[in-house]
Write a structure and sequence with these properties.
The structure is a homodimer.
Chain A lengths: L14 H13 L5 E8 L12 E7 L29 H18 L11 E2 H12 L5 H11 L2 E7 L9 E5 L13
Antiparallel strand pairs in A: 1-2, 3-5, 4-5
Chain A binds a DNA duplex through helix 4.
Chain lengths: 183, 183
Amino acid sequence: MWSLLGDMIRPDEDLDKASYRILKERTGLDDVFLEQVHTFGNVKRHPGGRVITTAYYSLININDHQLNFPDNELHWHPVSEITEMAFDHKDILEICLNQLRNKVEEHPVVFNLLPKKFSLRELQSLYESILETKLDRRNFRKKFFLTEWLVDINELEQDVPHRPGKLYKFNHAKFPHKSHGIS
Amino acid sequence: MWSLLGDMIRPDEDLDKASYRILKERTGLDDVFLEQVHTFGNVKRHPGGRVITTAYYSLININDHQLNFPDNELHWHPVSEITEMAFDHKDILEICLNQLRNKVEEHPVVFNLLPKKFSLRELQSLYESILETKLDRRNFRKKFFLTEWLVDINELEQDVPHRPGKLYKFNHAKFPHKSHGIS
DNA sequence: TCAAAAGTGTTCGCTATACACCCATGT
DNA sequence: ACATGGGTGTATAGCGAACACTTTTGA
C-alpha cells in the first residue's frame, strides 16, 4: 500500500522549514506552495511506535516537475484512484483534500499549478479537477474576471487544433504579499 | 504577561486526549467542546528550549464553571483586553479566535456556551460577542429559524425586567452525530 | 406611565445559476 | 466542410442587508 511522503523533523529546525526540506530531499521540488493542515497524534496510528505527524499539502505542477528520484519509490497518483493507504494516510489525504477544496474557493492558490501563461480553459479544467465537478463556462469566466486575479497579456494559445484562446497571467499586483505561494 | 494553558503530552497518550486531560487537570473542566487549530513549531518560539505546540480551543460557559484552582494562576480574561502575551501566545490566540469565528458561521458550536434553555437574545448576544459586531435582530431570528438549529420549548423567560422572550433549546435531532460537541 | 426588550415583513441589491448561438482555427 | 473549443449576455431565483412599529412585562 502507498503512503504519503514524510520524515522526521530535526531538533533545531522550524516545523514549516522541515516540511520544505523533506519535500525537497525526497522529490527535488523547491519553492512551492505548502500549507499546514492538521496534526495527527493517536498513539496507535503507527505500528512501529509513537509518531506524531503534522500534515501539509503542496501544489505542484506535475508537468513542470519530474520526480527525479525513482529509487525512493515516489510516484504520482490521481487521488480519485487511491482506495487504500498505509497507516492513517488515507484519513490524512481526505482531510488535506478537503482543506484544499475549501481553500481554492476563496484564495488564488491554484496558480501554483499553472504555467506563467495559461488559458481560461486550463484554469477551469484545474478547478474542475480539484473540485471534482463540472462548471459552466460563461459563469466561470464572469466570476474570475470579477476577482481581478487575472491579467490579459494579449497573447493567444499556439498549436491548438481549434480556435486559440487568450492567455492570461496571475495578477501579482493584486496580491503583493506571498500568502498565495506564487513567487 | 499572561500565557495560555498548556502542558506536555505523554508518550502513551493520544494528542486529542492530552488536550482534554490538560484542560481538566488545570481547570477541573470536563466534557467540553475542544477543537484542534494549528501546530506551532518554530525553533525559537520558547526561550527554554524546543517546544512544539498544538493549539486547541474550547468553548466553556464561564458562568457554569468556576475555576476552582486559584493557586495555578488561571484567570478568565476578555480577549478584547489582551494586548500582550508571553512567547508566541498572542499569535496562537489570534489564530484560534479566527478559527472560532469562521466555525460559528456554519456550525452550531455556540450552544456549548449556553444553558439548556436560552432566549434568542442570549443567542444573539453570544454571536455578537464572538464576532465583535452588531447584528440586526430581525435578520438574525429569520436566519436562525431557517437553520432549524432551534426547538421552541414553549416557555418564557422568568424574572426579566421587561417583556419575557420565548425559550429555545438546541435541536439535537438535527445533529445526531457529536461533531458539534454538545452532549 | 414609562422603560426595556420581544416580536414581526417588506424591499432592494447582489450573487449564483441556467442556458444557446456565432466565431476562429486546424484538419 | 467539419470538428473543436473560444467567446459572449440575459433572465431568474435565492440570500443578505437595511429598516420601524406594536406588544408585553416589571418597576
